[in-house]
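SEVERITY: medium
COMPONENT: batch folding queue
REPORTER: lab tech (J.R.)

DESCRIPTION
The queue accepted two submissions in a row. Attaching both inputs and their returned structure tokens so the on-call engineer can compare them side by side.

ATTACHMENT 1
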Amino acid sequence: MNGSIRDPGRVRTLGLAPRNHCIKWNLRISPTSIVKAVKSWLQHNNKHLKGKVRIRDAGDTPTLKDERRPTQEELGKVLRVSAPDARVAVCLVAHAGLRPEVLGDYAGNDGLRLGDFLELEIDNKNKTVTFTTLPTYIRVRRKLSNGGHQYLTLFSQEGGRHLKEILEHRMRQGEELTSESSVRKQFIRTTNIGDKMRDGVRAADFSWRSYTLRSYFDS
């Protein structure tokens, strides 16, 4: 039924519930995110919420308050137990500060390509790849940038070594690489990239979110 929600009790319940549910269900999102989702659902169903919804500490994420940056030793442990392609993803996020969405977009149709590694040389005949300089520059195209503009970042020597290993393995398996080739054998969705990094985090006996690895870049 179309119309507006005018009952103050219902509005009050909507305003108080999100923070409690974030804690009860161990959700790693803010109460504001839940309110936005509810409003979107109401709008989709042709309903309108009268008045403002006020939530104390609306931007708070209580389940993340004890989260911290990984140490160098902890990151090393994650890398040692991660799958080869996940190691590259971990290095891109932790060392180059890239968002997982840069590696593979939401739909899995685009992401970082070998041509975005500006100092990477591909030799399909001899099945080798070479970085002319390490650390090396990565170009994040405007389409992949959260800010909507192209920028450069640096990729570590360790990350370059892991990438070289998986690329040369792909070449030995018969794949011909070009500047348009994906860092992975094929593009995958952001959520799948996060899952692969999380597998390494869990195997190393840590409970962080995979996105926490990005905070290492700021340390």
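ATTACHMENT 2
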Amino acid sequence: MKKRYACRKSSDAGFTLIEMILAVTLFAIVSTSIYFSMRSGLVLYKRSEEGVREAHQINYFLREIDSELKHAFIYGGDSFIGKEKELQFNTVKKTYDKDDEYIDVVQVLYEIKAESLTRTTEYLSRTESSVTEKNILRGVIENCSFAYAYYDEEAEEIDWQDSWKSEEQEAVPKGVRIHFVANFYDKDADVVQSKRISKRILLPQGTWGDEDA
């Protein structure tokens, strides 16, 4: 007796061409979505980091110039030079060398050049000349300016002027105002926001400017 075998298709047959095309298309769509999601996240993270760094740079600058001006004094015949785009004065700074602490007399010069703030320091109390110049807050601030405190007796209020008459005053001013526009990245709005910042620094050792001097 002859045996009969039923002819049937194997269950482990390969994918058809259409199934392969669909699988590749689906994989491409998912991969593209993941790529753009990760890319957007990295861009937002980078911008957020830049915003934090810029805010840190501005805060450090304001703390540094606040400390320098509060220790400013007339030294060696050098006057306090105050202009709208330039500020030069002598101050004292602490420096450390291993376990030793030194007090240095330093001449500091701030200049505004092409929307960049340049800071130059020269150590006057050292036997060897030491001059350092560097750009600070490049691309972070704009429209930076300095103003100096004069007292208006008639109005009984402070009158901020864009220059300090150093030749007549022979002293440091009672106050210095720093004004600039800072550019911050707003993470929530995903845009760069401009913020006006104005800081007034009072110098306890200073004197009020005399407009008639």
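NOTES FROM REPORTER
The mean pLDDT is 80.
No errors were logged for either attachment.
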